[in-house]
Amino acid sequence: MISSGYPVKEYIDSAVRHVLLRHVIFYLKGPERHWCSVRNQGVLGIKVKIMLDWDPKGKQGPMTPLLDLVTIHPPKDEEESKEKKEYEAVVPQTNIEVPVQV
Q: Using CA atoms, how far apart are residues 89 and 83, in angstroms rounded to an integer?
């Protein structure tokens, strides 16, 4: 999952929710008072991140593809590769003796 740069703004959808754990309610009754006190046992924070899929139409995801998108093209025909070989330069062989050090 990507975590930095501009694509994060387009491809990552995040949400945060806080869940209060167990409420304890105290009712205090006195001759002149009637009030309650609420105490929480803690808070649980949940953070969720979802990476959206690329959608060329832009209905369910971003229209711009990721920068590291790799496209694999089908191999070229053999006829095209033979034509290129015809244009390659031909290096003539020479019969020059190379001196050898003894």
A: 13
Number of domains the chain is built from: 1
Instruction: Write out the E strands in 1-102.
Output: 12-29, 34-51
Q: How far is it, in rounded angstroms, from Cα 1 to Cα 55?
A: 17
Place of tokens 């070989």: 85
**What residue ranges of the chain have pLDDT lower than 50?**
none
- 3-state class of 13 per DSSP? strand
In sign, the C-alpha dihedral spanning 85, 89, 95, 98 is negative
CATH number of the domain within which 49 lies: 3.30.1140.32
Structural domain boundaries, residue 26 = 7-72
